Amino acid sequence: MTARQQFIATLLLGVAFLLLFRQLDPTGYQIGLMMRCMILMIVTIGLNILIGHAGLVSLGQAALYGLGAYVAAWLAVKQGVQFLPAIIAGVVVTGVFGAVLAYPTVRVRGVYLAVITIAFGLVFQNILVEWLPVTGGTQGLIGIPRGNVFGISLTRPIYFWVVAGCLIVAFIIQYNVIHSRYGRAMRATAQSENAAKALGINLAATRTLAFVISATLAGLAGGLYTFLNLFVNYETFTFFHSVSFLLMVILGGTGTLVGPVIGTSILTYIAEILQDLQEWQIFAYGFLLAAVMFVMPQGIVGSFSALWERFLSRSRARETQGWPDRSVPLLEILRPGEERGQIALKTEALTLRFGGLTAVDDVSLEVQSGTVHALIGPNGAGKSSLLNLISGFYVPTDGRITFFGASIAGLPSHELARQGIARTFQNTELFGQMSVLENVMAGFHAHYRNSLAETLLRLPRFGREEHRFFSQAHQLLKFVGLADFAEEEARNLPFGHQRRLEIARALALRPKMLLLDEPAAGLIHSEIEDLKRLIRLLADHGITVVLVEHHVEMVMTVSDHVTVFDYGRVIASGTAAQVQKNPQVIEAYFGHGSVMPRGRPMPARVEHSGAAE
Amino acid sequence: MGEILQYLLTGLSLGGIYALVALGFYIMWEASKAANFTHGDVYMFGAVLTVVLVEKGLPVLLAAPIAIAAAAVIGALVERLLVRPFNKEPNAIGWMLTTIAAGIMIESMATITYGPLGRPLPSPLAEQPIRFGGAGIYPQEMLLPIAAVAAMFGLEAFYRRTTLGRAMRAVAFNRTTAGLMGINPNRIALIAFALAAAIGALAGILIAPVVQAMPAMGTLIGLKAFGVAIVAGIANARGVVVVGICYGVIEKFIEGYISSGARNAVGFTLMILALLLFPQGIFGRREVVKV
Amino acid sequence: MIWNFLRSTSRAPAVLAGTALVLSLSIAPANAQKAEPCIAGSWELTGALAHTGLAIKMGIDAAVDEINEAGGVLGQKLRVIAYDDQGEPSRAVDNARRIGERDNCIIMIGGYRTPNALAIRTVLNEIGQPWMGVISAGTRVIEWESGKNEWMFRVSAKDRWVAPFLVDHALQRTKAKKIGFMFEATGWGQGAVPDVEAAAKAKGTALVGKETFNIADQDMSAQLIRLRDAGADTLIFYTVDRETDAILRSMDRIGYKPTIVSAWGIGVQLGKTAGPLTEGVLVHGTFAWTGQLSPRAQKVWERIKAKEKLKDPSELVLPSGTANAYDAVYIIAEALKIAGAYDKKKLRDAFYQVKYEGIIANYDPAFEKTVERHDAILPAHYKLLAYHKGILLPVAQTPHALRF
After folding, report:
1. Distance CA B218, CA C20 (A)
2. Residue C238 forms beta bridges with which residues?
3. Which pLDDT value is given to residue A313?
4. CB neighbours of A428 closer than 8 A, spacing ≥ 6?
5. Fold of B2-126+133-277
6. For chain B, which terminal residue's Cβ has fewer other Cβ atoms within 10 angstroms, N or C?
7. Which chains are within 8 Å of B by 3+ CB pairs?
8. Treating both helix axes as pointing N-terminal to C-terminal, what angle do A299-312 and A239-252 enclose, rounded to 10 degrees?
């Protein structure tokens, strides 16, 4: 079942179930319970996006839910605001707080973020209890008037369908976000920050989006809850509730489409049974949480899917094609500009210091566009540091860098990626849990034109762009010979293939300049030959390639220009032939006294402290 | 004047609790890069078990060490069963949920068997307060900051001077390399959790004569101490103790000068702000990872 | 936490199973007025105040057992059903519907917390469910702002009447004529503020200080220092045992020993934990099981003692609540006899005709058809208790009674 089929099937089954439920003439009590379950599903759908896709653990979701509830309640009771504007106000306020909560993610992550969300939840609860005139203190706000939309009073039977409608909308939003570049960007930031940055994905913006979506859904749920219960009380929005939302998401299956729906309904059903245990109720709840973690950490849907996959034996032997595949119309996809003959990259007196260590020391070099320029040197010479400087991962201590004339020193990586600088990494940084195709699709992120609204509403331009980039991604995979691996999970690829994928993904950025950090490391001889051909092909198409490499033979045969480093400084620069004969280069590689040029004294060896690479 | 002194004194005592419990988090984090949401409950467990043993007739000087030892066993079990299997990947969060679950179970077990009400733990140091300058404090309460500072120095000596301590530091620095040196990181983690639990239980026992031992006493303390440890940077014992004690004092001053109700809101907001200003914690080390 | 029985929606077998379940659960009795002979309550059975739910249940069990042994009511034996709401209002609402619609019990018994009782007001009216409070003393539980309370009755104290009782006794004992007020930041404590202030005003005095604190706070020195500096030598308390222990210790630390007149949040437990610090603290209640008991009360105590395996009346941690529950059940039984059938509406109407002598008071009549008289226990029935040697006794049986 594809994701799309699962999505539609769930929608249809869900609506059918609700209709059937109502046919059986349930009591007000039963309708109320069903509505409350649906409302909680809206919360967990939002949380699922946050945790399962953006990888951000929030233990304060109950506070956002409560914020939506209290805002709507306060407006309704104290200001006499109608149902619709009250709910919308709740959603807006909660969305703003979602953005506020996202801000810390710029600087902290993981456990630190969890602490901030816990603290947020506790602060919110404290405010609810203390701010008597506004929140009603521990008594809460009671006597909320029943919702009224265009003259129709929202009694339970009618309100049931309002809530169901909102749940369906939330479910659709989840699907539309997950299966779009926004969802890909979220998963990318969760799986490899560095690679995401290098593809032009703005980490802060992506995480803020995830938080805002989850917050607005929680806020919507809160507002709906207010008009269902007709009172709000702080006891409903405690840390314990945040934990149970988390449990619902995990029980269902983090990151799965249907997971939150299943997790929420099962947990609430089981709680009904737990009621009979009286004082053992809470204990049983904790036990259940632990049991799920041990037995089914992927959740119900996750475990089910894994079993299903194994049953179907989706994986089959895949065929690796040769690369680079010249039949692929690279020009159409990459669209290189007409910048031949210019200076693509220029550094002047570029310096990078880490405390007492000088990694890059007064480096000035020029890279001509459309050429292959190699940076070589012993370990610790500063080559990768220089690459990191150029791609925005480090900020220079001194000096200037310009890219086609414009200064880029100190700009963040995602900004540089959008300007046309792509790179690969020394330790391949793939989005391991995304498919090979999705990895490449992530590379196209910066080139999408459609907006969030078009994505959510699935307007025609969304479909067109997705389709176009989809086929181009396939083309790029074909280019590197991985066309048959498109559906495979990236982390399952053998090492050489991972390297190829990284390059294909970098090409999706349509770069003007490609930085390759030790691309040949770990490749066998035939793969290196393929790599050389690919690099030359790219240069022929007008892309500037800057290459950090140790394979001297490869460097010498593929490069137009070579710069040699030692201890962070440039010790030679020129064509491959020139550099090979340079005595300083020979000394750097082979040591003092290995080759004595006739008649010239050996240059004194200046002592440097070991520079960090 | 009297009130400032009062807030300072009770703040030191409260801060001592936070410091001791936060020290436990520090020890566990260093050994396994995981925290433990049952930590607040071993604090409770130490107090509750001691009360039960004393009620059965044991002298408190015998009951307390037994309770501490029992808590250490619980800490070890938590590490072995709930944290280790869920801490395999670098960004795993499974241990968060398993330990939260265990915390829920421990607290509700205690409520069912011990009862929800607090019970006193008699102590000669909690009978007469020492009063001076318009303020007063029970000698029992001063035991806490003293214990926290003593634990801090003890830990530092342990880490620097003993082989086991050095092994723990090695594991904290780089698990894999420590393993290659013949240190078993799993065993280290086990010992770390047991040690942390013992310290937490000690804190509970020390304060029980003043606040009564009851099953609900641990949860909020655990959460706050966790926040304290993170804000301190969870990287060194001194920082954690300093921040813990300061937080206790700050809480009291907030209660006194702003409002007692606002204590948690203001306190936690300060924590959030501190983390925003110092993303690695106030005393934390900035980690630069090679790309 | 909101629990319900919704099944998953995405797999056909699950849908079928869910449908079957829904079918079975949706079979509700056709006639909503005819009810089952069960007495059901939504109480706090787990959590920090679990002892309150258990205390209520004790009183109810004792009365129901007695009644059933004598043949039940209208030929049927009464059943007791206990639901746990963990002190959460939203669960209380759930349970109210469960009790009223699913179990269709003839009457629902209230619990400890006022916010929970307030939360279920609308639901009870909507489904027409009789309710009897036995503790939650908040005034608004019974006296609704709209005045339209039709189904909720109470055998317990009423904060609006408790406040003047406390203020009276405080005024009798204060030497400096300066009274302060210490209350917990909960629905009960915060809700009492207007009542206490109004009571003080009615007596021509004003509170010199008003301090609040949070549940689980362990140190109230800040608040007490402010009250001490304001000169208050007598304090009115709206607090419960755990926090009161902390308050007494804070007072001990700073050497502040005011007279304390407290609402019935504190009880037996405080005497055990705070020991000598409680000496002389006065508490409002409706009943005391310690000290000299009437023969009937003695028999009830014997029954509870046997069933719950207790040794001493001081183990009853919520003495007023247990007694309230006991009397409440008997009042319900009397009303049922007058009504002649297990019919909710008839029961409700019969309440106004009940005259009954319970262990707390002689209810003559128990209820009247006015806004304020859905409360059975009157201020005249209130008792003052005092701690002596750690035990809570009727004040006349302690050295702390005022000699006039």
Report:
1. 44
2. C183
3. 67
4. A495, A498, A499, A502
5. ABC transporter involved in vitamin B12 uptake, BtuC (1.10.3470)
6. N
7. A, C
8. 10
pLDDT at residue A157 in the model: 84
Say yes or no: C48 contacts chain A, CB-CB below 8 A.
Answer: no
CB neighbour list of residue A426: distance below 8 Å, 6 or more residues apart: A384, A517, A518, A521, B291
User: Which residues of chain A make contact with B114, given a CB cutoff of 8 A?
Assistant: none
Q: Does B272 touch chain A (CB under 8 A)?
A: yes
- End-to-end CA distance of chain C, in Å? 54
Question: SS3 letters for B27-49?
Answer: HHHHHHCCCCCCHHHHHHHHHHH
Tell me: do C333 and C366 sit in the same domain.
yes
Flag if A293 and B279 touch (Cβ within 8 Å).
Answer: no
Is the Cβ of B273 closer than 8 Å to some Cβ of chain A? no
Question: CA C243, CA B212: separation in Å to the nearest integer?
Answer: 10
**Does residue A271 sit at the B interface (CB-CB below 8 Å)?**
no
Question: Number of structural domains, chain C?
Answer: 2
Instruction: From B22, B223, B29, select the one nearest A115 (Cα to Cα).
Output: B223
Using the beta-carbon criterion (under 8 Å), do C7 and A265 form an inter-chain contact? yes
Mean pLDDT of C81-99: 87
Query: What digits encode the pLDDT tens for the residues A55-97?
Result: 888 989 999 999 999 999 999 998 988 999 999 999 999 999 9
Pick the CATH number of A330-590 from 3.20.20.70, 3.40.50.150, 3.30.1240.10, 3.40.50.300: 3.40.50.300
Size of interface B-C (CB pairs under 8 A): 98
Q: What is the distance between the alpha carbons of residues A207 and B165, in angstroms, rounded to a whole number?
A: 40
Q: ipTM beyond 0.95?
A: no
Token pair for A115: 């602490």
In this structure, chain A runs to a length of: 613
Nearest to A118 by CA among B19, B199, B100, B241: B100
Chain mean pLDDT for chain B: 88
CATH classification at residue C177 = 3.40.50.2300
Q: Which residues of A touch B271 (CB under 8 A)?
A: 115, 119
For residue B38, give the nearest of A295, A286, A116 by alpha carbon.
A286
Q: In chain C, which residues have their Cβ closer than 8 Å to the Cβ of B221?
A: none
Does residue A32 have a pLDDT over 70? yes
Q: What is the DSSP letter of C291?
A: S
Which of B101, B223, B265 is facing A290, going by the closest CB pair? B101
| Residue-range definition of the domain harbouring residue C236 | 160-263
**DSSP 8-class letter at A550:** S
Quote the tokens at residue A392: 């925005």
In a domain, residue C390? The reply is no
Confidence of residue A315 (pLDDT cuts 50, 70, 90): low
* Alpha-carbon span C254 to C225, nearest angstrom: 8
Instruction: Please report all neighbours of A, defined by 3+ CB atom pairs within 8 A.
Output: B, C
Please give the Cα distance from A606 to A93 (Å, whole number). 63
CA-based nearest distance C102→chain A, Å: 8
**Chain B residues close to C223, C-beta within 8 Å:** 260
**Domain extents for chain B?**
2-126+133-277
**Chain B residues near residue A279 by CB distance under 8 angstroms:** 108, 111-112
Q: Which two tokens stand for residue A272?
A: 């009904």
Phi, psi dihedrals of residue A423, rounded to the nearest 5°: -150, 160
Length of chain B: 291
Q: What residue in B sits closest to A384 (Cα-Cα)? A: B291
Facing residue for A104 by CB, picked from B93, B108, B275: B275
- Mean pLDDT on B159-168: 87
Closest-CA residue of A relative to B227 is A115
Closest CA to C278 of C266, C286, C287, C289: C266
Q: B30 to chain A: which residues are within 8 Å by CB?
A: none
pTM: 0.84
Task: Tell me how far apart the alpha carbons of residues C33 and C236 are, in angstroms, rounded to a whole number.
Answer: 44
